[in-house]
Design brief:
Layout (H helix, E strand, L loop, with lengths): L3 E3 L3 H11 L5 H19 L5 E7 L4 E7 L3 E7 L3 H8 L6 E2 L1 E6 L6 E7 L8 E5 L2 E2 L3 H12 L4 E9 L1 H10 L4 E7 L2 E2 L5 E2 L5 H6 L3
Parallel strand pairs: 1-11, 4-5, 4-6, 4-8, 8-10, 9-10, 10-11
Antiparallel strand pairs: 2-3, 6-7, 12-13
Length: about 210
Amino acid sequence: MEKVTIFDHPLIHHKLSLVRNTATKTKEFRENVSEIASLMAYEITRDLEVKEIETQTPLTKTNTYILAEEVVIIPILRAGLGMVDGIHSLIPSAKIGHIGLYRDEETLQPELYYAKFPTTLPEAHVMIVDPMLATGGSAVRAIDILKERGATNISYVGIVGVKEGIDRINEHHPEVTIFLAALDDHLNEDGYIVPGLGDCGDRLFGTK
């Protein structure tokens, strides 16, 4: 059974229009990617476990609630970095790891070149963040790596994706929940998401 959420929220729709627009400059593009991630994170974390604690207010003691599980944010380099601050601003206690992948030109498979994670992966709610879910190859490889390091509670958080990428994650990791701001139409012959938003990494960092 697919575990996919496509967000339908006026603010996300508005900001997604800005990041799709080819006229949007680097600063505004980066800000809106971060803000979309923040809006998504608010809903994604709705079901996080909490625990009750006693808190002293200025008037009396009362019972309040804090997060009972750790959150770890794992951006896939480099475009995933654009989503980290938006989520981290809501969950400043979250730890941040990194995965770097490149495509082998002979095998066309994603290969790992960098990985650094907190030691708490087995107990944490782990969010893989990457704005573009295209073929799903990088997402599946990242999930493989995290499972090898002990992660069991994993979700994928992206901005735009296509059914091909969703199907690939579901085929290899059906227990992983997928969150997207938009489900786009298809991949073109070069593997770009259509209508998409172009090369997200280049637009985030002004490298093209």
